[in-house]
Amino acid sequence: MRRYRKESAMKRGKRCGWTARPWVRAAAVGVVALAAAWAAGCGQQQLEEQNLALKKQIQEVQTVNADLQAQMDTLKAQNQAIQSDLDRARAAAAAAAAKTGAAPPAPAKPPRAKPEFGEGVETAQIGETTTITMPEAILFDSGKADLKAASKRVLDRIAAVLNKDYAGDKIRVEGHSDNQPIAKSAKYWTDNWDLSCNRAMAVVRYMVSKGIDPKRIYAAGYSYYKPLATNDTIAGRAKNRRVVIVVYP
Questions:
Q1: Distance CA 214, CA 201 (A)
Q2: Alpha carbon 202 to chain centroid distance?
Q3: At how many degrees (to 10) do helices 192-209 and 151-165 cross?
Q4: Strands (E), the chain
Q5: Cα separation, 223 vs 240, whole angstroms
Q6: pLDDT digit string (tens) for 192-225?
Q7: 123 and 114 in contact (C-beta within 8 Å)?
Q8: How far apart (Å, rounded) are the C-alpha atoms in residues 131 and 243?
């Protein structure tokens, strides 16, 4: 009788075991599915955050480009207005000379061709004034005023053009910064005035070493007071950290 009861209990246990196993497996599958869904949700959130950050950076760059295009359009309009004024002045002088019998004044010099240097260097021509703008990344490491070795290749080309095509003209080398306080390089510079002046002087000294007459070149530091773009964005601050060579009669 006891043997029968034992065997019956074993059979009932087997039946209960076989009945319970699918529930256990279903619960395990549910837990795994929930974990996978949670992980997928986290990954999707990270991708969305990265996508939003990239979109924000793209918008900032587009804003800076729009500002630069507007500045270029303004400069072109000013150049055209200056040229129109010159044409009217020459015509008036010629008419006055014809009435008095005096020789007309010598024609104005033709506008200079804008030099091109590549490698991220931007040039502009307004009348007889030429500007050559070089971003910080071409010339210096962040917070430093020592010229990079690679920058000297660009400066050599600029010096050659200034000696050949702009002989005798005055040259002002301007240092510009963004509005971020001096932090990591505080042991070298007091403030952005100090940094921008020393960067301009580094370029002046190198240009003199390449044959530029020291009597016609000088340095000026403007700190962050002559920005090209907003200092509220990374792209704008990068645009403002620059050295500008201004050449004029």
A1: 12
A2: 21
A3: 60
A4: 122-126, 129-135, 170-176, 217-221, 242-248
A5: 10
A6: 999 999 999 999 999 999 999 999 999 999 999 9
A7: yes
A8: 10
pLDDT in tens, 18-38: 444 555 565 555 655 656 666
- C-alpha span between 174 and 220 (Å, rounded): 5
- The residue length of the chain stands at 249
Q: Which residues of the chain have pLDDT under 50?
A: 1-7, 9-10, 13-20
| Alpha-carbon gap, residue 162 to 169, rounded angstroms | 8
- Vertex 63: Cα angle to 60 and 67 (nearest 5): 140
Token reading at 26 = 């279903």
pLDDT of residue 132: 96
Classify 170 as helix, strand or coil.
Answer: strand
φ/ψ (deg, to 5) at 220: -145, 135
What is residue 242's three-state secondary structure? strand
Nearest residue to 155 via CA among 208, 110, 103: 208
The pTM assigned to this predicted structure is: 0.57
Token readout for 84 is 């129109």
Contact criterion met (CB below 8 Å) for 140 and 146: yes
Q: Give the 3-state secondary structure percentages of the chain, helix then strand then coil, rounded to 5.
A: 60, 10, 30
Q: Are 130 and 116 in contact (CB under 8 A)?
A: no
∠ CA 123-108-85 to the nearest 5 degrees? 80
Tokens representing 98? 């014809």
Between CA 1 and CA 190 the distance in angstroms is: 102
**145 vs 82: CA distance, rounded Å:** 37
Which one-letter amino acid corresponds to residue 77?
A: A
Residue with tokens 């837990």: 31
